[in-house]
Write a structure and sequence with these properties.
The complex is a heterodimer of chains A (206) and B (313). Helix content of chain A is 83%, strand content 0%. With 206 residues, chain A is an all-alpha fold. Chain A has a single domain (3-99, 112-185), classed as Four Helix Bundle (Hemerythrin (Met), subunit A), CATH 1.20.120. In chain B, strands 3, 4, 7, 8, 9, 11 and 12 form a seven-stranded mixed sheet that branches. The chains are: A mainly alpha (206), B alpha+beta (313).
Chain lengths: 206, 313
C-alpha cells in the first residue's frame, strides 16, 4: 500500500471512531437517549471501549491470515480509541452514577467486584496509551514494547468479565464478546504453539 | 485531473463509511431514533381520586412527588416475557391480546373461583394510587396506578386460617409472549407474598395507570404492585392466584438465591451483592437516596418487626 493510501485508511478509522461519540452527543442534546439516559451513556461508552479493544486485537490475526500487513498501521489508533471510550465510560460513572463524589466513587470501586475488573482494564491501558508513540517504541525497544503491550490481552479479558458480571440475567451479549475474544486469543495461542514445534521436531526421533 | 478524481472518490468513501458506521450504531442502539408509539388503551371510568390530600393522611396512597411521564413508564419496562431490553418491550408487546382473560383464584379458601377479568374488576371501585416504584436495578418511577387493594379480592374467596402465603403466576404462552422461547428465566414467572403482606391495604391489584387500562408492556390486563418491595415482586399478566400453606418459590429467587430474596423489601442498607442499593436513578430526574421500605416504613415496618432484614432480604 502506498503512503497516501495508509494515510487515508488512518483518516477513515479516525472519522469512524468518532461517529458513535458524535451520535451520543447529538442524541443527548435532543433528549433522545431513552428513559434512562444516564444509564445509556454509561453502558454505551463501555460497549464502545470493548468493541475497540476487540478490533485492536483483531488486527494481528487478520493481518497474518490475509496478508494485510498495512493493517498494523491502524492498530495504534484503534487501541487509543478503546482507551478513549474507556475513559469516557469511567467519567460517565463518576459524574452520572456517583455525582462527582470522590469518596463514594472510591467506596463503590472497592465494594464491587465487577468494578475491580473494569478498573483493572482501564488502568492497564494507561501505560499502553502513554507508550503508544513512535518515540516511546524506540526508547523501550521493540521487544520490551511488545511484551508490555501484551497487557492489551489483560484489558480485554477484564473488560469482558466486567461486562458479564454486571448483567442481571441475559448474558447472551457478553457471551458473544467472550466468544470473539476467545477466538482472537486462541489464534495467538495456536500461533505460539506452532512456533515452538520446529524445535521439538529437531530432537531426533527413534 | 486524476488527483482531483481520486480525492473526490476518497471523500465519497469517507462519507459512506461514516454513514455505514452510524447505521450500525443505530441498529445496535435504536433508542435514539424510534418514535414512541403508545397504543391507546381503554379509559377507566369513575376512578376514585382523592382531590385533596389531607395533611394527616398516613395511608401512603398518594405520594407527593413529581409523576414520571407516561411515555417513560410505557417505554422502560422489565418484562422478560417480551424482551430483556427495557426499551424494546413496548414494541414487542404491542400486539399482545388479552381477550377472554381469566384469573383462577384458588387454594386454601372457601370459595375458589375462576374469574373473568370483568368480574374481578367489579369487586371494588377503581382507585388511583400514586406510588413510588423502585427497581432492584437501581432506578425508580412515580406512577399513578389504578386498582384496588388485593385484600378485597382475597376476602371475596374467604381464605382459610391455614392459608399462610399467596402464590401468583403469569400467563405461560410462548406464542403470545415470545420471550418465553428463551431460557433466560424459568417460565412461567411466579411470585409470592406472605398473607399479611398480601392483605396490606397498600398491596394493589392493578388494572391501569394514568387513567387508562394497563398497556401490554406494563403487565396487562392485571398485575400486582407492592410499593415497598422491589419492582420484580409486582408480577404482571396474572392468570393464577393461589392461597397456600408453605412459602412459594419465586422466579428471581430461584434464578439467583443469593441475589434476590423472597421478601425483596426496598432497603438502602442491604446492597445487592453486585451493586449498591443506597441510591436510585429517578427516571427523568437525578439520583436520589433510596428510602427504607421505599418510603413506606410507617405503613409496613411493623410487618417485619424483629426480623433480620439482612438475612431475609
Amino acid at each position: 500500500m502506498k503512503e497516501g493510501d495508509i494515510k487515508f485508511a488512518k483518516l477513515l478509522v479516525l472519522v469512524n471512531g468518532l461517529v458513535p461519540l458524535a451520535l451520543l452527543v447529538w442524541d443527548q442534546s435532543h433528549n433522545r437517549l431513552g428513559a434512562n439516559p444516564q444509564n445509556f451513556l454509561i453502558l454505551t461508552t463501555g460497549m464502545m471501549a470493548l468493541i475497540f479493544l476487540i478490533l485492536t486485537l483483531a488486527v494481528t490475526p487478520l493481518r497474518k491470515i490475509f496478508g494485510l500487513n498495512w493493517l498494523i498501521q491502524l492498530r495504534r489508533m484503534l487501541g487509543l480509541y478503546a482507551f478513549f471510550y474507556a475513559c469516557l465510560h469511567f467519567l460517565c460513572f463518576y459524574s452520572l452514577d456517583r455525582a462527582f463524589n470522590f469518596s463514594s466513587t472510591i467506596q463503590e470501586i472497592i465494594a464491587r467486584k465487577y468494578i475491580w475488573f473494569g478498573m483493572t482494564a482501564l488502568l492497564v491501558m494507561v501505560p499502553l496509551a502513554v507508550t503508544s508513540t513512535n518515540g516511546m517504541i524506540k526508547r523501550l525497544g521493540g521487544k520490551r514494547w511488545r511484551a508490555l503491550h501484551r497487557l492489551a490481552y489483560v484489558a480485554a479479558i477484564c473488560g469482558v468479565i466486567h461486562y458479564y458480571m454486571q448483567v442481571k440475567a441475559d448474558v447472551r451479549l457478553p457471551l458473544v464478546f467472550a466468544a470473539v475474544l476467545a477466538i482472537l486469543l486462541g489464534y495467538r495461542i495456536l500461533e505460539y504453539l506452532r512456533s515452538r514445534k520446529p524445535k521439538a521436531a529437531a530432537v531426533p526421533a527413534k | 485531473m486524476y488527483f482531483n478524481r481520486r480525492n473526490f472518490i476518497r471523500a465519497g468513501i469517507l462519507a459512506a463509511s461514516a454513514v455505514a458506521t452510524g447505521v450500525v450504531y443505530r441498529k445496535l442502539n435504536p433508542v435514539g431514533t424510534e418514535t414512541k408509539k403508545t397504543i391507546e388503551t381503554a379509559k377507566i371510568e369513575n376512578v376514585v381520586k382523592p382531590t385533596v390530600i389531607a395533611t394527616n393522611d398516613t395511608s401512603g396512597f398518594r405520594v407527593d412527588e413529581k409523576q414520571t411521564p407516561f411515555d417513560d413508564i410505557t417505554h422502560y419496562n422489565n418484562f422478560y416475557e417480551f424482551s430483556t431490553d427495557k426499551e424494546a418491550v413496548a414494541e414487542k408487546a404491542a400486539n399482545f391480546k388479552t381477550d377472554g382473560w381469566t384469573v383462577s383464584v384458588e387454594g386454601l379458601c372457601n370459595k375458589p373461583k375462576i374469574f373473568a377479568l370483568d368480574d374481578i374488576l367489579k369487586i371494588a371501585p377503581p382507585e388511583e394510587r400514586v406510588y413510588r416504584m423502585r427497581c432492584v436495578e437501581g432506578w425508580s418511577l412515580v406512577v399513578p396506578w389504578i386498582g384496588f387493594s388485593l385484600s378485597k379480592l382475597l376476602n371475596a374467596i374467604e381464605p382459610l386460617s391455614s392459608a399462610k402465603y399467596v402464590a401468583f403466576e403469569t400467563l405461560l404462552d410462548a406464542t403470545r409472549m415470545p420471550g418465553q422461547n428463551t431460557d433466560v428465566l424459568n417460565w412461567p414467572y411466579v411470585e409470592g407474598l406472605r398473607m399479611d403482606e398480601a392483605m396490606h391495604p397498600l398491596t394493589l391489584l392493578t388494572s391501569g395507570l394514568y387513567g387508562r387500562a394497563l398497556p401490554p408492556q406494563d403487565g396487562a390486563p392485571i398485575r400486582l404492585i407492592i410499593p415497598w418491595k422491589y419492582g420484580f415482586k409486582g408480577i404482571k399478566s396474572i392468570v393464577k392466584i393461589k392461597l397456600v400453606e408453605q412459602q412459594p418459590r419465586t422466579t428471581w429467587s430461584d434464578y439467583a438465591p443469593n441475589e434476590y430474596g423472597f421478601y425483596a423489601n426496598v432497603n438502602p442498607h442491604v446492597d445487592h451483592p453486585r451493586w449498591s442499593q443506597a441510591t436510585e436513578q429517578r427516571i427523568g430526574e437525578g439520583r436520589r437516596p433510596t428510602l427504607m421500605f421505599n418510603g413506606y416504613e410507617e405503613q409496613v415496618g411493623h410487618l417485619y418487626a424483629g426480623m433480620d432484614l439482612r438475612k431475609n432480604f
